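Homework help board

Subject: predicted structure for assignment chain

Our instructor gave us this sequence and asked us to write out the predicted structure in token form, then describe one feature. I got the tokens but I'm not sure how to describe them. Can anyone check?
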Amino acid sequence: MNQPLGYAVGNALEVMEVSQTLQNAGPTDLTRLSLELAARMIFLAKIVPTLEEARELAQQKLLDGSGYRKFKDVIEAQGGNPQVLDRFELLPNATGVREIASPRAGYVSAIAAEDIGLASSRIGAGRNLKEDTIDPAVGVILEVKVGHKVDAGAVLCRVYYTGDENVEEASAEIEDAFRISAQPPEERELILEVVS
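My token output:
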């Protein structure tokens, strides 16, 4: 991956983004990939005879809100509160935020997804050992994607945290994950290949 999928990295932040995506207001890349995955599952389940019809059905379920309602049903069936998809204040929320700014003007040519993920883990979004505690409130929200033109000092992303421990190191790692180039990068297809 030449960048994270969508804009959110971290548990509660990703739930918020999923809610927006299921209401057809999410990031284009996340929506497009999710629709393609859903279409392929619909087709494999033989619900419709062609992959194109499966794509149409997946799109219809997004647009009519039934996919969103079904996700709420799933949350409730697993003992969760489906209202979190409508009322984000019910989710764990970070207490601190740090902006990561571009050191120079140019184009975002890459965002190292793995580095963003590892830095997010450093502040509690994931765990290195089974015994580690996950902080569902923390993570990163990207403000730019690959190909965006930025000015020096423009906000590249925001780091959300609940404790000061490891924030400096994580912020430095996240800043290093962004590549800023003088020229715009070549456009890349979101889905390079389908392996069946």
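Reply (TA_rk): Your tokens look well-formed. For the description, you could write something like this. The CA atoms of residues 40 and 195 lie 12 Å apart. That's the kind of observation they're looking for.
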